[in-house]
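User: Can you recover a sequence for this backbone? Please restate the input before giving your answer.

Assistant: Of course. Working from this structure:
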């Protein structure tokens, strides 16, 4: 069907939602197709069994790994996308993350933009997502940052004692930048069910709360839920994307717009482009460079439980981060990454999927633990890729740059032992933990090696943009949400100022 919209956006996660918010501020009319529906506010939102054992909010779909084994991915299909269950961490990439950076396992490539290009949009994104933090506390933070919109979240007494002890052994644990409504009048109640849970009181500044709801209030955004986009179609000359074909309630439909934007996640956006192969684009839409689906990244991640004799009564634990080893140290000169507190682990969370761990053991461990997420950069490899085989998504991934990650885990365990936590359990999460997926439709300055230009516009089709974590040519070693949001605001300004939406 023809559309009266200026811009069609597929997907309502951080990228698509922030782009829509930015566009409507310019008076641009936007239609958004979201495959899911609004996540219900219900008692199960904060129920460990429902969320971690029953996987109530995980989609029923299956993907394949590199060996053809099926698995249920940790994607979430709701208004607001996977941000509905994120932990609220919104940290800027470091200035050096935008440059070619040598790692133990290879070189992380330079971006087609620099930190200075994104800096004003980081400022805007932090305002939009109500980020709490403290300037000057992070030793690796970029220079010249605007003050955070809100002061940092306070540490509860047990965690403050951990921060003080770390300081005494030379480790800087700084306030984690958090998109949580912790300010006066904010909805946060400081519960244990933040990281990995939906927020029943909408205190997390996710894509729905901070972007979609205010965009809908302008009357310029039309949100259509339950619409699963399968393919895009091209004009006869292949220069334009003509329409998006989707299913709504089992009925096949089609919609067109002057500009079409994919923002369905790094895996799903790549899959749509590949699935749309046609005579004008035999390798898939936007894929003359043959990079679509390639260079999949998702970070090297380890969950670390550090246990001592004392019980940890903390409710809201996710308040500290450590970047002392981000670019290496005297003993190891290569980048290692970021360490940050997790939301407080609970017994039922530990035993989910663990056949041989009794519930009482998991609960006892959780009562005495401080819980960390140890995160390192994985490097873009063209063989780590998303493909579509018989309409089935396949994610072929082999972890890399693991030496640096192991060094970071070693340091994280060592610093906790230094302050009295002698029992440490580290669990490597592997590459199919898809919450930080990125890199599959990379941007760059050369159309021979990149699918998108520096404004996320397809080199092959002048009215197609991809604005989710797909565009990222490297993963850095911090959570990607704020960088996705900042680039989305930058792209919104570009589309509005260029007049492309009125074509």
């Amino acid at each position: 069907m023809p559309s009266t919209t200026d811009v069609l956006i597929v997907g309502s996660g951080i990228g698509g939602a922030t782009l829509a918010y930015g566009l409507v501020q310019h008076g641009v009319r936007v239609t958004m197709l979201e495959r899911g529906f609004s996540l219900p506010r219900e008692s199960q939102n904060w129920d460990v069994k429902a969320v971690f054992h029953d996987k109530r909010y995980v989609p029923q779909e299956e993907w394949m790994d590199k060996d053809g084994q099926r698995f249920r991915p940790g994607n979430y299909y709701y208004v607001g996308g996977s941000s509905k269950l994120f932990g609220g961490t919104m940290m800027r990439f470091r200035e050096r993350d935008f440059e070619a950076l040598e790692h133990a396992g290879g070189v992380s490539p330079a971006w087609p933009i620099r930190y200075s290009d994104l800096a004003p949009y980081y400022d805007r994104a932090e305002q939009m997502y109500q980020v709490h933090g403290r300037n000057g506390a992070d030793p690796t933070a970029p220079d010249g940052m605007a003050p955070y919109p809100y002061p940092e979240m306070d540490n509860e007494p047990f965690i403050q004692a951990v921060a003080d002890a770390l300081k005494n052994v030379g480790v800087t644990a700084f306030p984690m930048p958090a998109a949580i409504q912790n300010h006066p009048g904010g909805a946060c109640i400081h519960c244990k069910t933040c990281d990995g849970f939906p927020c029943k009181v909408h205190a997390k500044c996710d894509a729905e709360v901070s972007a979609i709801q205010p965009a809908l209030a302008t009357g310029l955004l039309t949100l259509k839920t339950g619409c699963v986009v399968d393919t895009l179609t091209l004009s006869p000359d292949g220069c334009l994307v003509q329409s998006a074909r989707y299913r709504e309630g089992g009925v096949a439909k089609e919609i067109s717009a002057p500009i079409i934007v994919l923002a369905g996640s790094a895996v799903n956006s790549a899959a749509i482009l590949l699935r749309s192969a046609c005579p004008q684009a035999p390798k898939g839409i936007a894929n003359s460079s043959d990079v679509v689906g390639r260079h999949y990244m998702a970070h090297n991640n380890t969950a670390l439980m550090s246990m001592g004799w004392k019980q940890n009564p903390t409710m809201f634990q996710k308040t500290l981060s450590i970047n002392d080893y981000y670019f290496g140290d005297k003993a190891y000169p290569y980048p290692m990454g970021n360490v940050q507190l997790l939301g407080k682990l609970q017994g039922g969370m530990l035993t989910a999927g663990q056949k041989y761990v009794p519930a009482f053991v998991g609960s006892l461990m959780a009562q005495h633990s401080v819980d960390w997420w140890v995160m390192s950069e994985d490097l873009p490899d063209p063989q780590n890729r998303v493909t579509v085989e018989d309409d089935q998504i396949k994610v072929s991934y082999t972890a890399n740059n693991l030496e640096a990650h192991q060094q970071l885990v070693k340091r994280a365990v060592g610093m906790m032992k230094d302050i009295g936590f002698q029992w440490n359990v580290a669990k490597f999460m592997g590459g199919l933990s898809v919450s930080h997926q990125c890199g599959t439709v990379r941007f760059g300055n050369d159309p021979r090696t990149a699918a998108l230009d520096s404004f996320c516009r397809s080199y092959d089709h002048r009215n197609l943009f991809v604005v989710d974590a797909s565009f990222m040519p490297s993963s850095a070693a911090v959570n990607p949400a704020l960088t996705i949001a900042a680039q989305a605001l930058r792209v919104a300004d570009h589309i509005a100022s260029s007049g492309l939406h009125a074509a």
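That completes the design. The chain is about 20% helix and 20% strand.
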